[in-house]
Specification:
Blueprint: E1 3-7, E2 14-18, H1 36-45, H2 53-56, E3 63-68, H3 76-89, E4 97-102, H4 111-118, H5 120-125, E5 127-130, E6 139-144, E7 150-154, H6 155-158, E8 162-168, E9 171-172, E10 176-177, H7 191-197, H8 200-203, H9 217-228, E11 233-239, E12 245-252, H10 253-268, E13 276-282, H11 292-303, E14 306-315, H12 325-334, H13 337-344, H14 355-367, E15 369-373, H15 378-382
Parallel strand pairs: 3-4, 3-8, 4-5, 8-11, 13-14, 14-15
Antiparallel strand pairs: 1-2, 6-7, 9-10, 11-12
Helix pairs in contact: 1-3, 11-14, 13-14
């Protein structure tokens, strides 16, 4: 007897009939917080490490707040309301607050999207900028990475008297976990810095994968660059599959992030006895499945549960299409992710924009056959 399971697909979900014997792998149940606004305010008053936010704020201090962009389901309005309330209670003026939308190398968000992310009142009252990783005049070099590339971070963040970084923590396909220093790099970093950190050798490192922070060169470099950019007050949350807040972690970057990672590990990491012949997955629905580029994350995590030669089925709406021009161009130029993967293994390979997503897609397709259910037409999907 088949059973119906609702998959996280777009905004509305997707009901699918599965065999009764199908095994469902889901995060461990973690009760959502009863009062998230109160929990956020409490975390600002009593952080995991370092002084309360109110003690760091004062009249005349210039404050830069970094948020995640539309591609991350962060409750930005919830976090910003508590932060701004605390800052203003300590005497910080509205004109001394800058909100930076940490896009990394993604596109900037529209005014309408920003209003949906932050709330119309915040968009109306505060100065907001979309980060642009290619805007050289907005960046400053603070170091050189081990591969000889410049470490470039936004000037207005570096020059602020008080730096605040927000975000959420979940397992990440090659950074180990999101949140923490990832809000600074790649969030508000320059293109060259991101490209170097996301190079084929870094992404191909055996520890550059979900749920690994120690010994993961990408995670460790992101954290190191986040610290190099100066002291900051971190405000991160964890969430469940329905995007409800399950934990709040605030304070000094390393201590707060580590506490959030441990909470996330208990909630999100599920061990399996053996791999499966068929794996059906999603990328968590809207906004994470806006396009195929973002949805490769769902493919990458599901591939870890796939038996070699098996079949992986991804349900991702992809209402914005393939996404990220260079990702689509790379696929078109090289014929397939597997062909590009082979080229990346050559000694003369030079890092290209968005190659990391194609690399991970190729590794999954090297393991088994990948199928896509989406709003894309078949020719577009195969291309």
């Amino acid at each position: 007897m088949p059973r119906m399971i609702r998959l996280a697909y777009g905004r509305m979900g997707l009901d699918v009939a599965f065999p009764d014997a199908a095994e469902v792998i889901a995060p461990h149940e973690q009760p959502p917080l009863a009062d998230p606004p109160a929990a956020v305010r409490a975390a600002l008053r009593d952080p995991i490490a370092g002084p309360p936010l109110a003690d760091l704020a004062a009249p005349g201090r210039r404050v830069a707040i970094v948020t995640s962009d539309l591609t991350r389901p962060v409750p930005n309005e919830l976090l910003l309301e508590a932060l701004l309330e605390t800052l203003h209670a300590s005497g910080v003026a509205v004109e001394d607050v800058l909100i930076i939308n940490g896009t990394g190398m993604h596109r900037g968000n529209t005014d309408e999207e920003l209003a949906g992310m932050y709330g119309e009142e915040i968009v109306r009252r505060y100065r907001i900028v979309n980060h642009d990783s290619r805007e050289a005049s907005a960046l400053r070099r603070i170091a050189t990475d081990p591969r000889g590339e410049p470490v470039l971070i936004r000037r207005d963040y570096l020059d602020a008297d008080l730096r605040i970084v927000t975000g959420f923590i979940e397992p990440h396909l090659f950074a180990g976990y999101s949140g923490g220093g990832k809000g600074v790099m790649p969030g508000i970093a320059g293109r060259e810095t991101v490209m170097s950190n996301h190079s084929a050798s870094m992404v191909g490192h055996p520890n550059a994968t979900f749920g690994i922070s120690e010994g993961n060169p990408i995670f460790e470099e992101m954290r190191r660059f986040g610290l190099l950019a100066g002291d900051c007050f971190l405000l991160n949350v964890t969430m469940d599959a329905e995007q409800r807040v399950t934990g709040v972690f605030a304070g000094e970057l390393v201590a707060a992030h580590d506490a959030g990672i441990e909470h996330c590990r208990r909630q999100a990491i599920v061990e399996i006895d053996e791999p499966y012949d068929i794996v059906v997955t999603t990328n968590g629905g809207y906004p994470a499945d806006l396009d195929l580029y973002q949805s490769v994350k769902g493919i990458a995590v599901a591939a870890r549960a796939l038996r070699p030669g098996g079949h992986l089925i991804l349900a991702a709406e992809c209402i914005e299409g393939v996404g990220h021009g260079e990702y689509g161009n790379l696929l078109a130029r090289h014929g397939s992710p597997l062909e590009l993967l082979e080229a990346m293994r050559g000694s003369d390979w030079t890092t290209l924009e968005e190659q990391w997503q194609v690399q991970l897609q190729g590794l999954a397709q090297e393991r088994g056959t990948v199928w896509l259910y989406s709003s894309l037409d078949e020719p577009g999907t195969r291309a």
